[in-house]
Amino acid sequence: MHLRSLLVCLCVAMTPVVRLAAQVNVLTYHNDRARTGQNLAETILTPTNVSSTTFGKLFLTTLDGVVDAQPLYVGGLSIPSLGTHNVLIVATENDSLYALDADSGATLWHVSLLATGETPSDDRGCSQVTPVIGITSTPVIYLESATAGGIIYAVAMSKDSSGNYHQRLHALSLTTGKELLGGPTNIQAKFPGTGETSSGGYVYFEPKQYKERSGLLLLNGQVYLGWASHCDDQPYTGWVMAYSATTLAQTAVLNVTPNGSEGAIWGAGAGFAADSSGNIYFLDANGTFDTTLSSQGFPVNGNYGNSFIKLVVANNQLALSDYFTMYNTVAESGSDEDLGSGGALVLPDMTDASGTVKHLAIGAGKDANIYLVDRDNMGKFNPANNSNVYQELSGALNGGIWSMPAYYNGSVYFGAVTNSIRAYKFSQALLVSTPSSVTSHVFPYPGTTPSISANGATNGILWAVENASPLAVLHAYPANNLATELYNTGQAPDGRDQFGPGNKFMTPTIANGKVYVGTPTGVAAFGLLAGGVCRSCRSDATAPGTSAARH
């Protein structure tokens, strides 16, 4: 911990924390547990003031590694000795966690989650997260906690001097970065099965074979983790874990391919989605699926590779309660054309043509189809066709999904690979098959995960980051008309708004009139400019105690 961080910790320990009210917060991946990506309380940014003459880069803060996790935001946090700040929480692949002043980019505290003598993991021979693996998944913040002004939960991967790999769950003070709850907790697991890495009737979790890419889910006092492999480098299986948010003790483990192989949980960084009843949804990747079903329609050996999955939690146990799998699931897994590259989104309740309220979720993967499932009856598996699913738009995206959609005001927005962003409207609890609007711009690999800012049902803006090199681009469109572009960072004169190259996990965060984007070297912030020129803004705010160079 840096000296300034230590001083902050000591001061906060002796003084109660006060938080100001009436602030917009982004405490979890894509804004909420449903993973809609929408901030409906944005009163500053509107389609009339977001343009290259009035809006632009405010600061670019250099941190100590790649930022793959979505930045999180806590407004009006009062920290003794430092005053009241809007706070941006940013994690890096160098196993660092930063609290930045969200209005200036200055560092409030910075901690390393590495144990003594450890380094971040190497990339495990896989180019997906490189050059090192530290904190990949988006943390989650428990703001209501009375402990230390709030708790940040994060998963960090590391390597020790003997070549052993570690995965740990940390609980950190929101105001100081100090470890809480006796943490961190070393992540270990076993589950009954005879699949890959099994021994004595159990499959075992091997830390070096996995990375935690899924944004953490905090639900009913539990923190949920999902695990991806490094590329498709076997052996690996599909792990879901739950930990107590108050003790960090492991409370539940589930493996969705326990008697097979693969079935990782990728989701392009998307977190598990949850509904108001506490059910959990996600898309599983290519892996073993048992086409022989039980009398209740479930795979006889408990293997659910390439499925849209629903989990229930009861008595601290995780159970798979329902699923949908396409008829050609085995062929899709064999050709690596699975659902697991996308994230699931829980939709608000809708009423169908008969007046029945429908509880729906939506997702898409590499096969370019949109799947709309009924959360009360997901459809399971039909070897002949997909007539069992609530609705399928076959080939609707004209490209695979390596991202997740956003929802706003009766429309869902997908950014497929090498394609435009497409908006699809709902009518009587069904998707209209023709897009209501599309962007003229095409987004290269991996496509894009959009976010939405709006003031209720008005002033909706869709924000999306283009992963490009040497320069990534932030785009803004009216949510009700994607054909019109309001702004992009390439429009400003003299390269004013450039923020460096892109990477795969760039999900914009919008809060209180600003837009934040994680980059391969730090975090960039955008907002309204004074008189059209940001004369007082910092072009590059290097975090104290770090180098401006990418580590």
Give a quick set of tags describing it.
single chain, globular, mainly beta, 2 helices, five-stranded antiparallel sheet, 551 residues, disordered N terminus, Methanol Dehydrogenase, Chain A
> CATH homologous superfamily name?
Quinoprotein alcohol dehydrogenase-like superfamily
Question: Could you say what the CATH architecture is?
Answer: 8 Propeller
> Proportion of β residues?
35-45%
Distance between the termini: 18 Å
Structural domains: how many: 1
Q: From the alpha-carbon coordinates, what is the Rg to the nearest angstrom? A: 22 Å
Query: Portion of residues in helices?
Result: under 10%
Report the mean per-residue pLDDT as an integer. Answer: 92
